[in-house]
């Protein structure tokens, strides 16, 4: 479909070669320059291009790349006749490989550290289970960071930290239980939730909601929530966080 003419037209495959300069657009204020590294045949799925994006040295594949004159919304576009010299491409590829190696090294360090923390967290859980018995649910304090983008109507958050506050012997969502569990932590922001206003008791028990949680906002700051345990090995998901300093507060 040609959105400018409103007519159906056959797709035209532009044979972009190594060095072709392109622009990626994923929002009103998000434009990125890149360069084609190679064309890759995908069998029955046609041909795609590996593109190295200059701003953050990442590589991705794209199949439908149009001339910049046909720019219309989100997509990848190329500048006809604009090619990057091979020497500049080689330098960018060198930087990309160095970045990949550094990221792989950092990922390996994180893996080793997470394994160490998981061992500590497993011991914390074992000691608490000996004292209280196996829990039916966990009460957690979760710190969130807002990653929303208002310009593109994108709303989301990422989890910064998780603290295991208490075991529960039932799956009911009771805010008095959550408030009491908040006092198990030494983190002031978590403890303050024990006396949070009544309108911080969120009951989003509907499709698209976040369930029951105690917080001013789900998108930023600390919230307290209850996680039912349905699987035998589900506790293993919390070993790493429990092994961090202040990450396990079951009394």
Structural summary, described in words:
The chain is α+β, with helices and mostly antiparallel strands. It is elongated and about 70 Å long. Strand 2 (30-41) and strand 3 (47-53) form a beta hairpin. The N and C termini lie far apart (63 Å). The model has no long low-confidence stretch (mean pLDDT 90). 25% of the residues lie in helices and 33% in strands. It contains 4 helices and 11 strands, in the order ββββββαββααβββα. It has a 6-stranded mixed beta sheet, covered by helices on one side. A 5-stranded antiparallel beta sheet has the order 8-7-11-10-9, with helices on one face.
Report the average pLDDT across residues: 90
Question: Could you tell me the number of beta strands?
Answer: 11
Proportion of residues in β-strands: 25-35%
SSE order in H/E notation? EEEEEEHEEHHEEEH
Helix proportion range: 25-40%
* Biggest sheet layout: 6 strands, mixed
Find the structural class using helix and strand composition. alpha+beta
| Main sheet strand line-up | 4-3-2-1-6-5
End-to-end C-alpha gap: 63 Å
Approximate shape: elongated
Rounded Rg:
25 Å
What's the tally of helices? 4
The low-confidence runs, each spanning 5 or more residues with pLDDT under 50, are: none
In terms of topology, how is this protein built?
Layout lengths: L19 E8 L2 E12 L5 E7 L4 E5 L2 E3 L7 E9 L2 H47 L4 E10 L10 E12 L6 H8 L5 H4 L9 E4 L6 E4 L6 E8 L10 H4 L9
């Amino acid at each position: 479909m040609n959105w400018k003419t409103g007519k159906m037209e056959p797709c035209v495959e532009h044979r972009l070669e190594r060095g072709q300069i392109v622009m990626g657009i994923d929002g009103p204020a998000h434009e990125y320059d890149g360069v084609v590294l190679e064309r890759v045949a995908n069998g029955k799925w046609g041909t795609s291009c590996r593109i190295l994006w200059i701003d953050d040295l990442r590589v991705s594949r794209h199949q439908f790349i149009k001339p910049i004159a046909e720019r219309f919304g989100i997509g990848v576009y190329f500048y006809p006749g604009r090619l990057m010299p091979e020497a500049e491409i080689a330098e960018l590829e060198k930087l990309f490989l160095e970045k990949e190696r550094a990221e792989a090294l950092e990922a390996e360090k994180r893996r080793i550290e997470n394994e160490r923390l998981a061992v500590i967290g497993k011991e914390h859980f074992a000691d608490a289970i000996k004292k209280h018995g196996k829990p039916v649910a966990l009460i957690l304090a979760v710190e969130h960071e807002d990653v929303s983008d208002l310009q593109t109507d994108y709303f989301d958050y990422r989890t910064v930290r998780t603290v295991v506050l208490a075991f529960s012997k039932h799956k009911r969502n009771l805010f008095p239980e959550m408030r009491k569990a908040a006092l198990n932590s030494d983190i002031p922001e978590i403890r303050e939730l024990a006396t949070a206003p009544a309108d911080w008791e969120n009951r989003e028990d509907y499709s698209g909601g976040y369930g029951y949680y105690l917080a001013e906002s789900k998108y930023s700051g600390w919230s307290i929530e209850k996680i039912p345990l349905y699987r035998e090995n589900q506790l293993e998901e919390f070993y790493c966080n429990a092994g961090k300093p202040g990450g396990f507060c079951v009394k």
